[in-house]
Fold:
Amino acid sequence: MSNRSFLLFCLLPLAIFSMAFLALPLVRLLQASGEGEAGWRVYLQILQKPRYLNTLWQTVVVSAAVTVAALAVSTTAGLFLSRNRFWGRSILLSILTLPLAFPGVVVGFMIILLGGRQGLFNMLLPGHVVFAYSILGLFLGYLYFSIPRVLLTVMAASEKLDPALEEAARTLGASPTRVVIDVILPGLAPSLVAAGAIAFATAMGAFGTAFTLATDIDVLPMVIYTEFTLSANIAMAAALSLVLGMVTWILLLIARSFSGTTAAAGG
Amino acid sequence: MLKSPTKIAQLVVTLLACAFLLVPALQSMLAGITVNYFQGVSSGLTTKWIVQVWELYAGSIGLSIWLAFACLFCTLLIGVPAAYGLARNPGWISRVLEEFISLPLAIPGLALALALLQLYGSVQGFRTHWSFILTGHVLYTLPFMVRSVLAVLAAMDLKTLEEGAASLGASPWQRFRDIVIPNAMPGILAGSLTVVTLSIGEFNLTWMLHTPYLKTLPVGLADSYASMRLEVASAYTLVFFIMIIPLLMAMQWASNRAQRIVA
Structure:
């Protein structure tokens, strides 16, 4: 076998698998989205019917809020952990990164243990403090799986920053706060955009966490699920899936063009 | 270390974030071995919930382990040669192919599962077979294997190594077996641990693809969260943590090791 044909032979299993189980199913999904009563106008309905429009809006608002909160928390913690060496640092780092591969359902259960009827807050605080199944619970669930993702991106970037720049700013008399605002944050900006896009895309598509917590809240993955299983409105489920997939794919493409890294969308 | 108020504020935020992630995990571990969680630890410690979980869900735990290894086998078989092929053909076609197979990282699992169901949902023997769930898991984990191996291969001078071997008469297959695979080992190891960890925890695709007779560990978890008492749900989560946390730690260790080769 010649060199060239051996290399093509190596790529063959991948080509066959991704054709059969990725390309063709996605084409079929696109086709299915136009097979409903409304035909291709199904995509227009997403923007016309209040139920879908509200869902879209609600999903974007929650995801944006989570992105901002995760960026704030993880940038602070990430900078602290990458700039200081102290006893217990690696333990803190492990705690903050291990939940990276927790399935979304488990993250949902973590929030139930904090804010459910038998949750920590309801037991410790007076009165009835149950927030797990509200929009706050969903927000906290999304924050739970976003913190590790953003933290890893920020820490990787902050280790590449040139420490000489900070030292120069300090010798010139800048306060620690000014160093952060004028030197560190501008240096981290591309990675922060990337991390934010990853967090936003993950939150938009999070199904497991929403499945556990959002029994009464309309977020996009839950609406897709109910359209498919309860209403048997397959065309709408397919159309919403494709719109969601396009949005998260474009966001992660932006993330990659800014920092060259990408994390898995999960949750 | 704590010289300025800024640093103290940073430390407080870091510790609060740690508490937010750690406290519920510890709660679930404790609840899983407490006789009555509502009364607290004073009601005594027990292993009866874990025994009950084992009786109820041993099948789904077994299925998950089986699927994880089958998934590892498939991603090794497809992913390692593909990474080699991509590394030796660095053109725009490879870039497009790599981008395409990475789609499952970006598109939510729910959408991928719907796509698979639309095309193969009516194929009776396949729809109800465990290999249908396996297809979803391979689809989701394959890009991790390909990228992990590709990153290591791209960082070394594969061409010179192979030319040396070829001039000594090694066939393409011999070069792949004796040069490419041993050199790619750190990437293969990191990729393998990632694949197994993600497959065991996969829920979003699996929930749509599973049948009542084929429940994986995370599907069983969702089931127990919805219908079991808190102690049983916690005990099941505890079992899951005991399985996944060593894997996660091994995965982080192997990824860092592979990263050092790339850098």
User: Anything to note?
Assistant: Chain A touches chain B through 93 residues (CB under 8 Å).
